[in-house]
Amino acid sequence: MPVEQVRYGLVGTGMMGVEHLANLAVTPGAVVTAIADPTEASLGWAREALGARADGVTAFADSGALAKSGLVDAVIVASPNNTHRDVLTPLFGEGIAILCEKPLATTIDDARWIVEQAEASEAPFWTAMEYRYMPPAAAFIDEIHGGAIGALKMLSIREHRFPFLPKVGDWNRFARNTGGTMVEKCCHFFDLMRLITQSEAVRVYCSGGMDVNHLDERYDGARPDIIDNSYTTIDFANGVRAMLDLSMFADGAENQEEIAAVGDAARLEVLIPEGALIHSPRVGFRNPKRATRRVVAVDPVALDAGSHHGSTFYEHQKFIAAVRGEGAVEVTARDGLMAVAIGTAAEISAREHRVVEMRELGF
User: Distances in Å between the alpha carbon of 135 and those of 23, 79, 102, 119, 341?
Assistant: First the structure.
């Protein structure tokens, strides 16, 4: 049987928007019909990415005109973080399914407003948390929830990576536009922590600073103010402790992400992009180790379509199923809010050198 087509619009046609276009190109039934961006150069990148498909695509300057066009069933929002509320406002109430890039917003107030609108809407709303859908990470999560390590007690995530990339207008160099590194970048990991622990954060301590990257950069005379390295520890309501180790000047690392979960029966580790999943049961003092190792494969088509280890492709397959009514929304606006809240707590903690209780922020 033919696959039911879904007409897509894209708001924000920069680097991440172009990645979404590449993934829609290999998503059965996805047809791009509209794009919107106030920057002509960015629209040009989208047309280049669309290639021959660009002939059937209408360009708009903003999301309001796109929303009223009647050309779309679903919209992907990939505009700068601080524009999300304004971009989403005309989309709500039009019966349009929405996939909104992370972070949901740069402030808790805006994120709460988005949650209210999303929960009042009959159309699906999905927060784009791609890291959930990296196949090695998804397998890691499934094994933990399946009891492979016993009762989870400790969770650690290490991301050692490259600095923030240049963006249009250099918007990502300033916390006022991004929400700060702990919101912009680390919301992915705080979302993973919530998903893995199946609990909510109660207190956050973050020690971080801007020590290497962007020190000599100036934009209209202003110096960037984004954290480039940090340690964050989080206590969850169910007693699990979690830690994030972030370095954005470690681009030589063999694996960008290393995640380890320790339970009362075993330890499980995943290495990305290597894809290795290593299970190490407890053996007792001086007894032989019994670790097992397997590599989780990723579809080459998914790998070729983006820079997030195939995750954007797999996310799109889930999202389009939700749009068609064939699957549930797996990452809600409320999930997006909670990741922003933890990131905001981490930013406050790093700035004020103190522990932040989540109840201070209303959670």
Answer: 16, 26, 19, 29, 26
